[in-house]
Amino acid sequence: MPDIGISPIIVAQEEGYFTEQNLNLELILFKSAKDQDVASQIRQLNSAISDLLAVYFLNSNGLKVKAVSVIESCFLLFAVKNSRITGLEDLENVEMGLSFNTVIEYVVDTIISGKEVNVRKVSVPQILIRMKLLRIGQLPTAFLPDPWRRF
């Protein structure tokens, strides 16, 4: 998935570090967490960069997986250009694109918990689609991983 956490692995592969160690690595980039979870469930993956919620859900569905390292990620709330959204209070009844049952939804729920704001969550699992909908104005807000702030 498009996430800054994968960067060291891509660089290591490009620099030939895995080959030097006689490791055969095939990187598969998924467009959504759901696609990656399905690949894990049908045992197409030996390992994955994911969130702890995915580890929980995969284990609860009978696939024995474990987290072996932690990568810190940053998520940001984006709004369409020229938006009047400047704070949480401006999100009342505003649609927000995110991926359901992921750490992104958990972060959104945590941020708005205890606040008197009703965000209308819209499931858009694929990050690139979420960004495109935001860019063309079909989605007023979206919650995305940090690297997307540059676009």
CATH architecture title of the largest domain: 3-Layer(aba) Sandwich
- The CATH homologous superfamily of the largest domain is named Periplasmic binding protein-like II
**Helix share of residues?**
25-40%
Q: Give me the CATH fold name of the largest domain.
A: D-Maltodextrin-Binding Protein, domain 2
Structural class by helix and strand composition? alpha/beta
Any low-confidence stretches, pLDDT <50, length ≥5? Answer: none
List the helices and strands in order. HHHHEEHEHE
> What gross morphology would you assign?
globular
Euclidean distance between termini CA atoms: 17 Å
Number of helices: 6
The radius of gyration over CA amounts to: 17 Å
Tell me the name of the CATH class of the largest domain: Alpha Beta
What does the main sheet amount to?
4 strands, mixed
Q: Give the number of DSSP strands.
A: 4
Number of domains: 2
In percent terms, what proportion of residues is strand? 5-15%
Oligomeric state: single chain
Q: Looking across the biggest beta sheet, what order are the strands in?
A: 1-4-2-3
Overall pLDDT level: 82
Protein name: SsuA/THI5-like domain-containing protein
InterPro entries: SsuA/THI5
Organism: Anoxybacter fermentans
Domain SsuA/THI5-like: 6-124
